[in-house]
Amino acid sequence: MTARLDIDLGAIQHNWRLLDALHPGETAGVVKADAYGLGAAQVGPALAAAGCRMFFTAHLAEAVALRAVLPGHKIAVLNGLFPHRADEFLAYDLIPVLGSLGEVADWRAAARVLPCFLHLETGMHRLGLTLAELAVLAEDKSRLDGLSLEYVITHLVAADAPGDAVNERQKRLFRELAQQFPGVKTSIGNSSGMFLGADFHADLARPGAALYGINPTPGRPNPMRHVVTLTAPILQIHDLEPGETVGYSGEWRAARHSRIATLGVGYADGYHRALANKATAYFDDTPIPLVGRVSMDLTTFDVTDVPARPGDMLTLLGPRHDADALAAQAGTSGYEILTSLGGRFERRYIGA
Fold first, then answer.
1. 182-189: which pairs have CB atoms within 8 A and are 24 or more residues apart?
2. CA 11, CA 226: separation in Å to the nearest integer?
3. What is the dihedral of CA 236, 242, 244, 245, to 10 degrees?
4. Which domains does the chain possess?
5. Residue 145 to residues 91, 114, 125, 231, 306, Cα–Cα distance (Å)
6. What is the pLDDT of residues 310-325, one digit of tens each?
7. pLDDT confidence band for 113 (50 / 70 / 90)
8. How far apart (Å, rounded) are the C-alpha atoms in residues 303 and 285?
């Protein structure tokens, strides 16, 4: 037996429908990073079956792979137009999200009426046309000749912190800058941004993590349905006497007679090394503490208080202990937990 990752496509569809009902405009599906580690080839068609018509990836290669399973849908590439790659965008009918004057010029050089999005920088300072570049466009509108500009977009800095004043500043600046492009649709809301209120709704929402069960409203109950369950069989159980240690460097020492279960999951599978002596698994309804270090291929759990045996399954991710909970124990985010999930798990897609 091997560790198994169950991915509930029906829950992903439910989450998309919930978000689509929340938003008055169109709702896309962000499937970058292989649909946050869950499999874009499976997630993309499931979202399409639920009604999603537009998809976003980060990289060109991701979009090319997605086109094979979504032949009739819009696919936009958030990281923009890569140098000397316009022909591939054209060949696969992909939309670049242009983020600089250089990218605008390169896309125009393809010499036909071409769809595109423009990314406007409003505070994230990663990608997007700066205020100086937008001023150049305002003075010379011919730089956009030949382009079919479908959306102007921006990305929120602190959408998961509703009280942060930067959200209001970005919204005001984006609205002001978008007036430079009359009649062009707008997009501002990511997963958390969709919950900031009607003022942050635009023509297109771009949820990602919320589709996969990550809580878009930290500090409040998660409105999304659980998506990912990771279970692993117990390989062996060792009996330890008081004072004996477990794993590298002996960082955990038994204070009593203990039964220690070994699982074939480690940091090579995305079960983070930072979880040492912090993480929790479940045996049925009972929480089980991780003891000792997380190794590359193995982890150890204290099953002294449950009737576990070799071959029994422990749940490492599940409804009682989701990616957000595991992330809190690892000192990271649920996004990183999902996108770290490795390729050695047996994957089962259910629910759709």
1. 184/149, 184/150, 184/151, 184/152, 185/25, 185/150, 185/151, 185/152, 186/151, 186/152, 186/153, 187/117, 187/151, 187/152, 187/153, 187/154, 188/153, 188/154, 188/156, 189/23, 189/156, 189/159
2. 7
3. 80
4. 9-212 (3.20.20.10), 228-350 (2.40.37.10)
5. 21, 10, 27, 54, 69
6. 999 999 999 999 999 9
7. confident
8. 13
248 classed as catalytic: yes
106 phi and psi angles, rounded to 5 deg: -65, -40
Closest CA to 230 of 252, 218, 213: 213
CA atoms within a 13 Å half-sphere pointing along the CA-CB vector of 147:
25
Q: What is the DSSP letter of 145?
A: T
Return the DSSP state at 194: G
Per the DSSP assignment, residues forming a β-bridge with 146 are none
* Angle between the N-to-C axes of helices 131-139 and 101-108, in degrees from 0 to 180, rounded to the nearest 10: 40
β-bridge pairing 29-30 and 26-27: unpaired
Q: Are 246 and 291 in contact (CB under 8 A)?
A: yes
Q: Report d(CA 101, CA 17) in Å as an integer.
A: 36
Indicate which residue of 32, 267, 271, 282 is catalytic: 32
Residue 352: predicted pLDDT: 76
Q: Is the dihedral of CA 258, 303, 2, 225 positive or negative?
A: negative
Nearest to 37 by CA among 328, 342, 329, 272: 342
* For the chain, percent of residues with pLDDT exceeding 90: 95
Two structure tokens written together for 251: 């960082």
Question: Which residues, other chains included, contact 61 with Cβ-Cβ below 8 Å and sequence gap of 6+?
Answer: none
Total-model pTM: 0.96
What gap in Å lies between CA 350 and CA 352, rounded to an integer? 6
Find tokens 């790659």 and name the residue. Answer: 85
CA distances from 295 to 247, 263, 270, 280, 322 (A): 8, 10, 11, 16, 21
Residue of 74, 92, 185, 248 marked active site: 248
Active site residue 74: no
